[in-house]
What does this fold into?
Amino acid sequence: MGIALSAACGFRVFVPLAIMSIASLTGYLTLSPGFEWIGTIPSLVAFGTATILEVSGYYIPWVDHLLDTIATPAAMLAGIVVSASTFVEVSPMVRWILAIVAGGGVAGIVQGATVLARWKSTAVSAGLTNPILSTAELAGSLVTSLLAIAVPILCLILILLGVYLISRSAGRFVFGRHP
It folds into this structure.
């Protein structure tokens, strides 16, 4: 579940945190010791507000590129936090190693793929298709977050497949290979 939520952070930083907060408040998600603050009303308000601002910013031309610059390290940090907060039955050392390597790594890979997709979108359409891409990224974050909580194993398999397909497509663009 933590790895899948980390991937969702690669699409949008705050959507998974808002969904985790709701899931914790409603009893669908148990958080690791020390991370119970995610499931509080003040956190939900903060994550909800940040989500609205982040999602809105991706629909403003050129602001989306600025957000990508900020979102890359933020996504990795959020990936670390969301994964660490869901590793309930492991020792603190294992929790943090997994969170940093797997959670931060997966969030960084997904975020990197979205940055490449945005560059390609801008290059091909002068940014006119970026709102479509932003909508797809938001949908990816929402669906991934919800699936991560409801069906974590299926979600992880779909994420791995998606990362493979996106990286293969991005490699064609970056290295000039065509199908």
About this structure: The chain has one domain: 2-175. The mean pLDDT is 89. The helical segments are 2-11, 15-25, 41-57, 63-86, 92-125, 130-150, 152-175. The radius of gyration is 16 Å.
